[in-house]
Amino acid sequence: MKAIVKKERKFGAGLMEVDVPKIKDNEVLIKVKATSICGTDVHIYNWDEWSQSRVKPPYIFGHEFAGVVEEVGSNVTNVKIGDYVSAETHIVCGECSQCLSGDAHICKQTEIIGVDRDGCFAEYVALPAINLWKNDTAMPINVASIQEPFGNAVHTVLAQDVAGKSVAIIGCGPIGLMAIAVAQACGASSVLAFDLNDYRLRLAKEMGATSVVNSREENPLTVVDKLMHGNGVDVVCEMSGHPVAMNQGFKMVTNGGVVSILSLPVRPVEIDVTNDIVFKGITVQGITGRKMYKTWQQVSGLLKSGRVNLNPIITHHLKLEEFEKGFNLMIQGKCGKVVLHP
Hints:
- The radius of gyration is 20 Å and the shape is globular.
- The protein contains twelve helices and 18 strands.
């Protein structure tokens, strides 16, 4: 089969012919119909400090997809051949204290497909059957392929109650754009979007942001002070990973507010803990993955309700062979979500 392989410990990747994976008794083989490029994939493609410390080439990367079950292992009972599926990408142990207490999304033994093991930038992918999520047959394949990152946005925004509250989304990459839609759908009183990229700020407006701010042209703290009448914002969702933007997020949140951090800074970030956390009495929430499987239920519900429309975010469709073009678009910030079709 064709697959995009992170071949070496350096920038880039290559399209290769590799063997179709063989499944174990508890696994399923899925024919990939659509797979989308994530910010994490860009980290790996660029070979930044985080990816250098985490991934071990050569291997197939990619972790967002939708496809059809082609083969099932002898112990599999929850899906059958022909089912239309996507997947929870965190493979967990099911035995640690976190898993046993309902917090499997922070399992200490987590393996992520496309990061710690072979992923879905390929014609086929093999996964444990327990990780599969059956899709509504009416769901477009492109939307189905981005449910995993949409789950990140849902988890980030709904880590706290946002109904009737002001929400700031810092970083309008694809997940940030999705977070705007989630906040609006769940009753936020206002949604402020911050980025340096006018292309993505235009998408932010289309996704429902009540105010968009180019942080290169305007001081975010001055804008928040004016819009919030000096009170700050109730909830900050940090999606950028930039040290300056992250610090601004802690300074703009109101006393007693919440900062939810999904972004992955490539190096340690210095925060004024005394003044921006302790004396303000705020809550800081780290977000990893999706709650298994509460977030997936919320994802399905929001999409089925029609209150969230993800189509404007999907800006490019490319063949798997055109992956370099897709990564360049992501690196340049001249896209929303890029979907590859094997």
